[in-house]
């Protein structure tokens, strides 16, 4: 049985702890051998949580926590996390402390995007999400990251985007440029006609408000598609 099958059993709530996985598939052991960058967000949270509760395995709990973190504008609150059955006040505080510590010391703010690969490295951890996440990165004149935000979380294979939602925060950031991106849960990175239309609309709005649309990246765990590289005509004024 491979790791994904084992994870599915944990998602069903039939397993309490990653210790029920074969040793080589346990997230702590995988982290020790492969490094934390090789684990999914879900696995990292499972390590932090340690165990689930009766009827809800640690991976199911991690999945719910991940959904709350993705949906929050900025850091989630204690109240947000306390709504997750099985998390508890102490674990909620631990999670928030970890998120804030990571934000302060190793957040994406200040990272420079010189090419699409740089953006993909910042965004790849969203690739395993089951729904499309549309993300906007605000950049200064040197293309350094000012902020990164999830704009919408849509149904699988469909994300509805309004330019106002994309550009309102970058304008507040005094951004000179933005880069937008979204994951394809299917794993395929070939853009749809809808993706192309969204890119055209965002480019038109960017020109109107005086912000450069640097790129629109479609990505998955397998790789990415850069509109600025593959369809340069869309970015010509």
From TrEMBL:
Keywords: Hydrolase, Metal-binding, Metalloprotease, Protease, Zinc. Pfam families: RadC, UPF0758_N. It comes from the Bacteria. Residues 112-233 form the MPN domain. One of its GO terms (molecular function) is metal ion binding. Gene3D superfamilies: Cytidine Deaminase, domain 2. GO terms for biological process: proteolysis. InterPro entries: MPN (IPR037518), RadC_JAB (IPR025657), UPF0758 (IPR001405), UPF0758_CS (IPR020891), UPF0758_N (IPR046778). Belongs to the UPF0758 family. This is DNA repair protein RadC. The gene is radC.
